[in-house]
Queue: 2 jobs
Job 1
Amino acid sequence: MSKTILLTGGAGYIGSHTYVELKSAGYDVVIIDNFSNARPDVIDRLAQITDAPVTWHKGDVLDKAFLAKVFAQHAVDAVIHFAAKKAVGESVEKPLDYFETNCTGFSNILMAMQAAGVFNVVFSSTATVYGEPLSLPYTEDHRIAPVSPYAQSKVTCETLLRQLKDSDPRWNYGVLRYFNPAGAHDSALIGEDPNDIPNNLMPYIAKVATGELPHLNVFGDDYDTPDGTGVRDYIHVVDLARGHVQSVGKLLDDQDTHILNLGTGTGYSVFDMLRSYEKACGTTLPFKIGPRRAGDIDCFYADPASARDYLGFEATRGLDEMCQSSWNWVSRVRNS
Ligand code: UD1
């Protein structure tokens, strides 16, 4: 019998792509989402991609009664927890909101799981937990030094998982530390579509390409990198989604616990990204060099070896595929 995975935040950017990969791997999947940062039509689009009805419930991870009802209704084998706030700048302004949604929300999920006898959880973490790099690439044993309330919230959740496992060995968890997710599904039916002005590079470039924003502001060209702009490890969202399928499979098969980077191991600069996007959309994209963004660092990228050795995970899609799939998605959204 196929296993059932509950996806919190399953209608969001990474959650929706993970839904598709889980379904194609043969899992039954239940989505919960409060739709605070998801397109309302994503459920229909997931049904279209997978050619099957979607099981979903609208609700919030802060609503304990809602969570208890969901666990009573479905025989869940494992949870993949995405539902969280993720804007670093906003977290500095609203640390309480970040603590409540990210930490209290997660502890609510864990309590509901425990009450229902479900002990397998994959947690969506971030490379931002490492802070200023002492050495690169970041390996999973790099020291942890969160510099924002957002990063701190992820560290708090990772710590809670460790403490929970120490308290009760029935718990199995996978912590996945994402690098910079980018791109969209090949169908161009789902992708990243922030309502406000994007904070992150790729959605910002996408809005310049569609004409919604006049130019890219390059945050500094005097970094200690080959072309002076910031270097990051961009990973295709479909590769990232596949990493979740492998992680949850390992928990279910081997009663496992792991903490792994999900990145490609290759760094690209802001200009690399811009050039690749120009190729994808077939036009020159305007940019202005501006000051550095507070808190940014020159360069970081993953050591992907542990995820490869442990899960057999390997990112297969490069920068051009990220930009092309993003462009296919945003140009379709704009014209629909
Ligand atoms: C940001 C978050 C990080 C999160 C990651 C997810 C911050 C400080 N960090 O990381 O916690 O895990 O997103 O994707 O927000 N850039 C520009 N112009 C722009 C936007 C970005 O030049 O309009 C540059 C940045 O200076 C950086 C690179 O592009 O060098 C990538 O920026 P971004 O996409 O925001 O990602 P991170 O800063 O790596």
Job 2
Amino acid sequence: MIPTLEWTSEGVRFLDQTRLPLEEVYVLATTYQQVAEVITTMVVRGAPAIGVSAAMGLALGVKNSPATTVPALAAEFQTMCRTLAATRPTAVNLFWAIERMKNRFTELASHSGATPASIRIGLIAEARRMYDEDIAACRRMGTHGAALLPRSGGVLTHCNAGALATCGYGTALGVIRSAVEQGHQIHVYADETRPFLQGARLTAWELMHDGIPTTVICDNMAASLMRQGKIQAVIVGADRIAANGDVANKIGTYGVAVLAKEHGIPFFVAAPWSTIDLKTATGDSIPIEKRPEIEVTHHGGKQLTPHGVGIENPAFDVTPAKYVTAIITERGVLRPPYSDSLQERETAASVPATG
Ligand code: MRU
């Protein structure tokens, strides 16, 4: 399995995604501040991977803390949470993970006889549990979603929603992997995904690693390929899904969704439940991260644009729910209207099973 991130006795080890595909280099973060830096600089990226990285960062921070009392550890923990929450604003998995670690801290601290040592052990275990759960969720998404993909044909994806964006297996690429394991003859078309090139560098690298036939295309080629009948389905991941089914994902996703609708091609979104944000009513309220201009003006250290020209670099866009054929989650496949299906699935999961 591709080792995107891993808890080790020395710290959290990350496969440096800024160096792929040409170099397979690992970065060891030994402090929570270093984990925050690794998330901001996109050494690790992809919503589910960002969430679990933050949880591991908090576990690391608590492990390293010299605090000798629970209140002192709790005060430091608040600072750690603030630092990690300030890394990337769009992926709701980040805030979900921090919230879950906060809740676990409170639970552990409320035990009679709780000590900093017992909290450290509990939080490390919680972060590692989130890692395992993420992989299991990806596998379940794969099982639920595989049948939606064509038995044979082209599947377009945008950005990287694979093992590299999760703790392993992937969301959109997990569904593709699962379909291929079930015998579908799929050819993946990977949008290169300007400006950070997650498709060209990461999706291509990871699918080739698994021997899944893949062709990289420039983002502006998708329309033409659709018109030529080369694309039978589109599948992407998500950074946040609002209560009405609007989907925030890598910049360019919205355009692909509009093109898919125009060509009568199904547009699927695969995401774990930690990406669903029922507290945000619509996509209009999703905060969109703005990345540094240099990601657009330069490539490989070389300047591409004239000095002083205006630059926009929003990292994500919002695809309105009306373009989304289905949302694939570990809880099953959801269909429109998403305001109903998302809420129903949430309620079903929170009601304990009887009998
Ligand atoms: O800026 P990135 O590379 O973190 O953006 C990643 C994406 O947009 C992914 O599609 C999304 O996080 C889903 S990953 C399973």
